C-alpha cells in the first residue's frame, strides 16, 4: 500500500472509534442484518461507487444498498462490472468494487477477476450465494464460486455468519489494496446476508499473515547500488508496480539525477513521461526498437515492480543477456520466477527506489568521485537508436486511413491527463505506440490476460474515477467492441462523457496478422464478412454515432466527437492491410525485432 | 508524408554474445548450466480454515509443481495445521514453491527441511494369510505391528523413512499384497531447531497464555 492511498489504516479497534462516529448516518441507520453490515463495511472503506448486476442471491445486499449513500452503477453484464471496477481501481489507485449474484453472475465475473489478477489491479468482488444449508445440493444458480475463482483471486472468502460478514468484507477490501494489489472476493450466502446482526464492522485490515515488505535490506541495497554505479550501460526497467506503488516521482528523480535511460513494461506506460529525453518507452513484443535495443545491450538493469512477462522478455535465453539484474519487488515470489535476479530487493517500489538513490550517492562518493558524466556515452547510444529506429508509419494522403494517424490526432486534440482505455489487439498496440503518455494512471488496458472487450466497460469505470475535467477516450477494435458493446446502454443511461474510437478493419486484426506471418496467410475465422454499422448502432443505443474514412476528415470528426457531452462512438474505417510493427516474434530475441513481415 | 519504420534489419544489428538458460539464469555460453531436479520436503504452518488445502493443492497443480506427496494434520494449536509437501524440482523450482506457498494468505510460514530432519511415513499393508509365521517375521524385521489377522488376510503397519517403507513393501510382495495404503511423508526439524520460522514465536505466545 502506498502512502498516497486513502484506505483505512491498520489500527486497534479503539482507534477506529472516531472514524465510526463519522461514518455515514451510522446513528440513524443501525445495522440489523448481515447485508446491512456489508453495506456499512463498504461505506467505511471510503469507496463511493459500486458496479454490479442484480440477481436472486445478491438481492439482500442490494436491499441494504437502497438505504446507503453509496452510488451503484447497474452494468449490462457482470463481466462489464468487473472490468469497470478494475479500471476504477487503476485510475483511482483504490479498490474498485463489483457485485454479482450467484451462479452465472459469479461466473461472468471470472474473466474480469482473472484480468485484475494478472495485472495486480485492486478489485473487490461481492457475490451472492445460495443459502448455506443448500450449498452442495446443486441448488438453482449455485456455483462453487470460491472454488471457481480461487486461481484468479489474491484471496477469496466464503462468509460464514451474519456477525462476521461485515468484517470479512472490510478485510477483503484492505487486502485487495495491501502490498501487491489484486482482486479479492467474498461469497455471501443468502442466509448470512439476511441473518440478524447488529455488528458495526470495524475498519478493515489485511490479515496478519499477509505481511508485505516495506524497506529492502540495506546491505542488499548498497550492493545493488554499487553494481549500478559501476555499470557502463545501465537501464531502469519500470514495471506496473511503479504506478501501483506510487513511485513515479521517485523514479523520475532517480533516473534524471544519474541520467539512466528508462524502459517501461506495458502496464507501466505513463510511469515515466514518454516525452522525456531518457524515455525509451515500452519494450517487448511491440515495443519500440530503441527500448528493445537498450534492454538487449545493457550491462545492468534496475527492474522495479515487474514480473518479466513473456511478452516483455521474448525468449528468456536472449533477454538482457549481459545484464546483472537488480530486481525490486514487493512480491518475493516474482524474484527469479522468470528471470534470475542477481540482486533481489524486497520492498515497496517508492521506498526501494529512494533507498537505491541514496545508496548510489554514497557509492559514488566513496568509489566513483569523478564519474559525473559516467553514463553519457550510453545515453548517446540510446538516443542514436531512437534516431535509427523511429516510430513511424508510411502514409500517403490517398491511402486508406492509417490507425496510427488517428491515435496521434486524438492525442493532439486532447489534454495530457486524458485517460485512454483499450480493448485487446492491433488497435491496443497502436494506441500504446502512437500516443505520448506523460502521466501515470492515464493508460488503462488489459495487459497480462489480453481480454478483448475490456475497452468499453473500462472506459465506464475510468469515467467514474476520473476528475470531471479529465477526458476519457477508448480505442477499440471492431472485434473487441463486439464483445462488450451492451455496456453502451450503461454509458447512455449514466450520460457518461466518453469517446470510443473503433479502429475498424473488419477483422480480428492481430489474429489475421499472425495468420499472415506464421500460418501461411490462411485466414481462418479472423475476417468478418460483415460488421454492423457502428455509428447507427450507437445511435440506436442513444449515443452519438460518427463515421470517418479519409485522412482529411479526421481532425473535424475527432473534434466533434470529443466535443459531444455524452457517450459517442466513432466508426473509423482504417486501412485493413495495416499491421503492427516493430515486432519481436513470440519467444524471439528482443534485439532482433523486425520492422516488417519480410524480416520475420 | 511519412516513411514508415526504418533502421537496420535484425541481421545487420550487433547482437550481444551473452545467454541465459531456460530458467532465466545468466550463463557462460561455453557451459551448459542445468539445475537437476532434487527431491526435498517443505513444511508449512497454515491456518486451519476451510479451503486451505484446496488452495495449496490448486497452487501446486496450476503452477505445475512436481509433487510426490502432501500430508496435513492439526497441531497442538487448534487454529493451525502443518502441511508437509515432498516435491521434486530443480533448485529454482524449489524456491518458487516455497515463495508461492508463503504468498497464500492462509499460510503462516514455510521452510525447506534440512537433510537431518526427522521424517516418517506409514504404510498399511494387507497380504494373503497363508503363511502367518513368515508374515510375522517380516513384520518384526521392520519393527511393524500386526493390525488384523484372519484366516485369509493379515494387515500390518510399518512406519519409517521412505526407504524403509519401500523396502518393507518389497519384502511383503512374496505373500501377495492385496491392498496397500500409504501416507506421504510427515516431518519435523531435528533437535531444538524449529520446523518453520513462525513456530518459536507462536509456541512462546501459547506458553504465556497458559
TrEMBL record, chain A:
The UniProt record lists the Thiamine pyrophosphate enzyme N-terminal TPP-binding domain at: 33-146
Q: Where is the composition biased (Polar residues)?
A: 1-11
Keywords per UniProt:
Amino-acid biosynthesis, Branched-chain amino acid biosynthesis, Magnesium, Metal-binding, Thiamine pyrophosphate, Transferase
Catalytic activity line of the entry: 2 pyruvate + H(+) = (2S)-2-acetolactate + CO2
Cofactor(s) demanded: Mg(2+); thiamine diphosphate
Pfam families (UniProt xref): TPP_enzyme_C, TPP_enzyme_M, TPP_enzyme_N
Domain Thiamine pyrophosphate enzyme TPP-binding, first and last residues per copy: 423-571
Thiamine pyrophosphate enzyme central domain residues are 221-355
User: Which top EC class is given?
Assistant: transferase
Q: Give the record's cofactor note, including how many are bound.
A: Binds 1 Mg(2+) ion per subunit. Binds 1 thiamine pyrophosphate per subunit.
Q: Name one GO cellular component term.
A: acetolactate synthase complex
**Annotated segments matching region Disordered:** 1-38, 184-219
Q: Which domain of life is it from?
A: Archaea
The pathway it acts in is: Amino-acid biosynthesis; L-valine biosynthesis; L-valine from pyruvate: step 1/4; Amino-acid biosynthesis; L-isoleucine biosynthesis; L-isoleucine from 2-oxobutanoate: step 1/4
GO molecular function per UniProt: acetolactate synthase activity; flavin adenine dinucleotide binding; magnesium ion binding; thiamine pyrophosphate binding
EC annotation? 2.2.1.6
Transmembrane segment boundaries: none
NCBIfam families associated with the record: acolac_lg
Protein name (record): Acetolactate synthase
Automatic annotation (TrEMBL), chain B:
Q: Which Pfam families is this protein grouped with?
A: ACT_AHAS_ss (PF22629), ALS_ss_C (PF10369)
Among the GO biological process terms of this entry, one is: isoleucine biosynthetic process
Q: Which residues form the ACT domain?
A: 41-118
**UniProt pathway:** Amino-acid biosynthesis; L-isoleucine biosynthesis; L-isoleucine from 2-oxobutanoate: step 1/4; Amino-acid biosynthesis; L-valine biosynthesis; L-valine from pyruvate: step 1/4
Range of residues in the leader sequence: none
Annotated region Disordered: where?
1-34, 188-210
> Biased composition, Basic and acidic residues: where in the chain?
190-210
Q: Name one GO molecular function term.
A: acetolactate synthase activity
Q: Which family does it belong to?
A: Belongs to the acetolactate synthase small subunit family.
The record's listing under NCBIfam families reads: acolac_sm (TIGR00119), PRK11895.1 (NF008864)
Q: What is this protein called?
A: Acetolactate synthase small subunit
Lineage per the UniProt record? Archaea, Methanobacteriati, Methanobacteriota, Stenosarchaea group, Halobacteria
Amino acid at each position: 500500500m502506498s502512502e498516497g492511498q486513502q484506505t483505512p489504516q491498520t489500527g486497534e479497534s479503539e482507534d477506529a472509534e472516531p472514524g465510526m462516529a463519522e461514518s455515514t448516518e451510522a446513528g440513524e441507520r443501525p445495522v440489523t442484518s448481515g447485508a446491512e453490515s456489508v453495506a456499512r463495511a463498504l461505506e467505511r472503506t471510503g469507496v463511493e461507487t459500486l458496479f454490479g448486476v442484480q440477481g436472486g442471491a445478491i438481492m439482500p445486499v442490494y436491499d441494504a444498498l437502497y438505504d446507503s449513500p453509496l452510488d451503484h452503477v447497474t452494468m449490462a453484464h457482470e463481466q462489464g462490472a468487473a472490468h469497470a471496477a478494475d479500471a476504477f481501481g487503476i485510475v483511482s489507485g483504490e479498490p474498485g468494487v463489483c457485485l454479482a449474484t450467484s451462479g452465472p453472475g459469479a461466473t461472468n465475473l471470472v474473466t474480469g477477476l482473472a484480468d485484475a489478477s494478472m495485472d495486480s489491479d485492486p478489485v473487490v468482488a461481492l457475490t451472492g450465494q445460495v443459502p448455506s444449508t443448500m450449498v452442495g445440493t446443486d441448488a438453482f444458480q449455485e456455483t462453487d464460486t470460491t472454488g471457481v475463482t480461487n486461481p484468479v483471486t489474491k484471496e477469496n472468502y466464503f462468509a460464514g455468519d451474519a456477525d462476521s460478514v461485515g468484517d470479512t468484507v472490510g478485510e477483503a477490501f484492505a487486502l485487495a489494496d495491501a502490498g501487491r494489489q489484486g482482486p479479492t472476493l467474498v461469497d455471501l450466502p443468502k442466509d448470512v446476508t439476511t441473518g440478524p446482526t447488529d455488528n458495526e464492522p470495524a475498519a478493515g485490515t489485511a490479515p496478519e499473515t499477509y505481511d508485505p515488505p516495506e524497506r529492502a535490506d540495506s546491505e542488499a541495497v548498497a550492493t545493488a547500488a554499487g553494481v549500478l554505479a559501476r555499470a557502463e550501460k545501465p537501464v531502469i526497467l519500470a514495471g506496473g508496480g511503479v504506478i501501483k506503488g506510487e513511485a513515479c516521482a521517485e523514479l523520475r528523480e532517480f533516473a534524471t539525477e544519474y541520467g539512466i535511460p528508462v524502459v517501461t513494461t506495458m502496464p507501466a506506460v505513463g510511469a515515466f513521461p514518454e516525452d522525456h529525453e531518457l524515455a525509451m518507452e515500452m519494450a517487448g513484443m511491440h515495443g519500440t526498437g530503441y527500448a528493445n535495443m537498450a534492454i538487449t545491450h545493457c550491462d545492468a538493469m534496475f527492474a522495479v515492480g515487474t514480473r518479466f512477462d513473456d511478452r516483455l522478455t521474448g525468449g528468456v535465453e536472449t533477454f538482457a543477456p549481459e545484464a546483472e539484474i537488480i530486481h525490486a519487488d514487493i512480491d518475493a515470489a516474482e524474484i527469479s520466477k522468470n528471470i534470475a535476479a542477481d540482486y533481489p530487493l524486497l520492498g515497496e517500489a517508492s521506498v526501494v527506489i529512494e533507498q537505491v538513490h541514496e545508496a548510489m550517492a554514497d557509492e559514488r562518493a566513496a568509489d566513483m568521485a569523478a564519474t559525473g558524466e559516467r553514463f553519457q556515452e550510453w545515453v548517446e547510444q540510446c538516443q542514436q537508436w531512437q534516431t535509427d529506429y523511429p516510430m513511424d508509419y508510411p502514409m500517403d494522403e490517398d491511402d486508406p486511413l492509417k490507425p496510427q494517424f488517428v491515435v496521434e490526432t486524438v492525442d493532439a486534440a486532447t489534454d495530457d491527463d486524458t485517460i485512454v482505455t483499450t480493448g485487446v489487439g492491433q488497435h491496443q498496440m497502436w494506441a500504446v505506440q502512437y500516443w505520448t503518455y506523460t502521466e501515470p494512471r492515464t493508460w488503462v488496458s488489459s495487459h497480462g490476460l489480453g481480454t478483448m472487450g475490456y475497452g468499453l466497460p473500462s472506459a465506464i469505470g475510468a469515467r467514474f474515477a476520473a476528475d470531471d475535467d479529465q477526458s476519457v477516450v477508448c480505442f477499440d477494435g471492431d472485434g473487441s467492441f463486439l464483445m462488450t458493446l451492451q455496456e453502451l446502454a450503461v454509458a447512455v443511461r449514466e450520460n457518461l462523457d466518453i469517446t470510443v474510437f473503433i479502429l475498424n478493419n473488419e477483422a480480428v486484426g492481430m489474429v489475421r496478422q499472425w495468420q499472415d506471418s506464421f500460418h501461411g496467410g490462411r485466414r481462418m475465422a479472423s475476417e468478418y464478412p460483415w460488421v454492423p454499422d457502428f455509428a447507427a448502432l450507437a445511435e440506436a443505443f442513444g449515443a452519438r454515432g460518427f463515421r470517418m474514412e479519409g485522412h482529411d476528415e479526421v481532425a473535424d470528426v475527432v473534434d466533434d466527437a470529443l466535443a459531444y457531452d455524452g457517450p459517442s462512438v466513432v466508426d473509423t474505417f482504417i486501412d485493413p492491410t495495416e499491421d503492427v510493427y516493430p515486432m519481436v516474434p513470440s519467444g524471439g530475441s528482443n534485439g532482433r525485432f523486425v520492422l516488417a513481415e519480410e524480416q520475420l | 508524408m511519412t516513411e514508415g519504420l526504418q533502421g537496420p534489419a535484425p541481421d545487420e544489428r550487433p547482437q550481444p554474445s551473452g545467454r541465459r538458460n531456460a530458467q532465466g539464469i545468466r550463463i557462460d555460453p561455453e557451459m551448459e548450466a542445468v539445475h537437476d531436479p532434487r527431491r526435498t520436503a517443505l513444511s508449512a504452518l497454515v491456518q486451519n480454515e476451510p479451503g486451505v488445502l484446496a488452495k495449496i493443492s490448486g497452487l501446486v497443480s496450476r503452477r505445475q509443481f512436481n509433487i510426490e506427496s502432501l500430508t496435513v494434520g492439526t497441531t497442538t494449536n487448534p487454529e493451525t495445521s502443518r502441511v508437509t509437501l515432498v516435491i521434486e524440482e530443480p533448485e529454482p523450482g524449489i524456491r518458487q514453491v516455497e515463495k508461492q506457498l508463503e504468498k497464500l494468505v492462509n499460510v503462516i510460514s514455510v521452510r525447506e527441511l534440512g537433510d537431518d530432519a526427522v521424517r516418517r511415513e506409514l504404510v498399511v499393508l494387507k497380504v494373503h494369510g497363508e503363511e502367518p509365521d513368515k508374515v510375522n517375521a517380516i513384520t518384526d524385521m521392520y519393527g511393524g505391528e500386526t493390525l488384523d489377522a484372519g484366516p485369509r488376510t493379515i494387515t500390518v503397519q510399518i512406519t519409517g523413512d521412505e526407504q524403509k517403507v519401500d523396502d518393507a513393501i518389497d519384502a511383503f510382495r512374496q505373500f501377495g499384497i492385496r491392498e496397500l495404503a500409504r501416507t506421504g511423508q510427515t516431518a519435523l526439524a531435528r533437535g531444538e531447531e524449529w520446523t518453520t520460522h513462525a513456530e518459536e514465536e507462536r509456541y512462546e505466545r501459547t506458553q504465556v497464555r497458559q
